[in-house]
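Question (not urgent): is this output format expected?
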Amino acid sequence: MDNVGPIRTGLANGVYFLHVLVTFFVPWGWILPWPEAWWFGIFFIPLMLIHWKTADVCILSTIEMKLRGHPKAGTIEQGGFIQRMGALIGWNMSDKTAVNMGWAFSYMGLILCALRLYIGG
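Got this back:
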């Protein structure tokens, strides 16, 4: 990757942090004590899933990689975020495992947010 300077690196780190928050919110947002978080999950998670179905790559990964000057930003070759997160703990998962985990945890989070709203907390 190119040396893109401190401002773009800082922005890329901000997008990365947002992506980490999204990655943890989607499966675990239902644990939060606020109904607003559950409602957010009910609307956000399906939008995210639609994005996954209609785009080749995640928009947050693409923005981060473009800011970092990655030559393959916006393509499948930029790499998946779930795999990069797994690599932090030494887990080099396959593309299929990452995709299956992403879908499974997303549906789990969506169902549990709906369940929390249905039972009233």
